[in-house]
Design brief:
This protein starts with 6 loop residues before the first strand and ends in an 11-residue tail after the last strand. 19% of the residues lie in helices and 23% in strands. A hairpin with a 2-residue loop joins strand 7 and strand 8. The strands form 3 sheets. It has a 4-stranded antiparallel β-sheet. The longest helix is centred in the middle third of the chain and has 15 residues. The protein is built from 4 helices and 8 strands; from the N terminus they run E-E-E-H-H-E-H-E-H-E-E-E. By secondary structure, it is an alpha+beta fold. The chain has one domain.
Length: 185
């Protein structure tokens, strides 16, 4: 890692995850999903121009407001984006930020007792979801939609560790260094 980075991960509504760099409060990543729809990582819906639920407390403690921060969503038409500097092998040196956001989405879906999390990969990312998450097409969906099995049947990721309490995920501990178990890491 090129230096220490502190990130703030915010989850709001029923499927909007935003990640901010606490050093400069830049909006560096997002994942929009809908557990009721098959289209998760494609066809993002627009972000409402609202502040995060903790905007007032954040302004009081940190002197910053995160209202009107939808630049990433406005400039990228998919429901998932990580600034290149914050990607694996990026200038900042953080790894697995995409997996952290997806782990939050999967934990949310599991807490809602879903059996499958459906994604519609973009570009050439389908092999990544098949290998990393065990995603597979189901007979009940179109060919370009993959499903990740949830619950005990889900393939665990070796560097993602959910912290559970009272049967629900309360936190996620994730390694932000290269993943030696993955071919590119």
């Amino acid at each position: 890692m090129t230096g220490k980075s502190e990130l703030l991960v915010a989850f709001r509504g029923t499927g909007m995850i935003d990640v901010f760099n606490r050093g400069n409060w830049a909006h560096i990543a997002y994942l929009d999903f809908d557990i009721q729809s098959e289209i998760h990582l494609n066809s993002a819906f627009g972000s409402p121009l609202i502040g995060l639920p903790f905007s007032i407390a954040l302004r009081q403690t940190q002197g910053v407001s995160l209202q009107y921060f939808d630049d990433l969503r406005r400039n990228h038409h998919y429901g998932f984006f990580v600034e290149p500097d914050y990607r694996n092998k990026g200038r900042i040196g953080i790894w697995n930020l995409d997996e952290l956001m997806l782990a939050i989405a999967l934990a949310y879906a599991e807490d809602h007792h879903l059996k499958w999390f459906r994604i519609k990969p973009t570009g050439d990312t389908a092999p990544y979801y098949r290998l990393k998450f065990g995603a597979t097409p189901l007979p009940t969906t179109t060919a370009d939609v993959l499903s990740i099995h949830l619950g005990a049947a889900r393939k665990p990721l070796p560097h993602v560790h959910p912290v559970r309490y009272a049967g629900r995920t309360r936190a996620i501990d994730i390694q932000t260094a290269p993943d030696v178990s993955w071919p590119s890491g």
